[in-house]
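Obj: model holo form, ligand = calcium ion.
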Amino acid sequence: AKEAGRNQAQYYSRNFHEQIEKRARLETDLSKAIDDDQFILHYQPQVDVDGKRLVGIEALIRWQHPQLGMISPDEFIPIAEESNFINELGRWVIRTACAQFSHWLERFNTAEIHFSVAVNLSAKQLKDKGLIDYCRDCIEHYKIPPKRFELELTESNLVSSLDAVDTLNELAEIGVELALDDFGTGYSSLSHLKAYPFSILKIDKSFVQSAKPGQDECMLKAVCAFAKSLNYKTVAEGIETEQQHKLCAELNIDRLQGYYFGRPSEVDVIEQKWLA
Ligand code: C2E
Ligand code: CA
Ligand code: CA
Ligand code: CA
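Output (holo structure tokens):
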């Protein structure tokens, strides 16, 4: 047993060492990855309550590392956030999503645009003094209807930056919509919620996924009722089954998102399935 314990300790320390090496490598490689075109946005559909009509598209970043393969944002966004690189990366995301959106608006000749495009923002980007002008310029340059462009911020991410309210208000003044992501999992005080200019609450997927008829669906119901009573638009994420769709439909959640309707995928796939 002692021997096994030692082996295990060695295993963990080797593993730990490997993790540190990988992290250091990602840190170095990140800085070149924009110029080398290694980032790509995948797009995930959001549908109405019937599950039929496309009402939104969320852009989710991926890193195609030349040696390490596809790396998830959960792995590299925190590294990017530790340096100012997140600002440059965040601008790339905004610019790329706007360019794609304007392409859709032209190509699909949507006289009456019926869907929004959403990007994720790191709370750290709110400290970037040029962010507001950058967003405004992108939206103007690509002729995006501001109401159709959404910025998502996570609740837990916001807690540490209470001065974010001013920046968020300035962003809202551009006319874009602000969504509070992963709602229900952070620690923000509910009484402060109305001080922020959010118009959309994205109910965290844990509420959808723990909902079983008769028992845990109470939590989803409660969060949903709360959001609706304060007049927020509601989005449910992480819908993977027909049953979860049914439940969200009964609760009349405005928009639904999850693998059941479509995984985040490359532009072609979204276009074929939803825009053709
Ligand atoms: P998020 O904004 O909460 O995005 C939802 C995550 O849930 C995505 O993971 C998505 O692929 C995944 N997802 C969607 N439908 C389902 C489902 O039915 N079941 C399950 N289990 N998962 C589902 P992803 O793409 O790996 O992104 C992880 C997180 O990374 C995002 O969470 C977001 O916080 C962050 N992120 C992604 N793109 C960006 C970006 O461009 N900028 C910043 N700052 N953060 C980003
Ligand atoms: Ca999001
Ligand atoms: Ca989320
Ligand atoms: Ca999340």
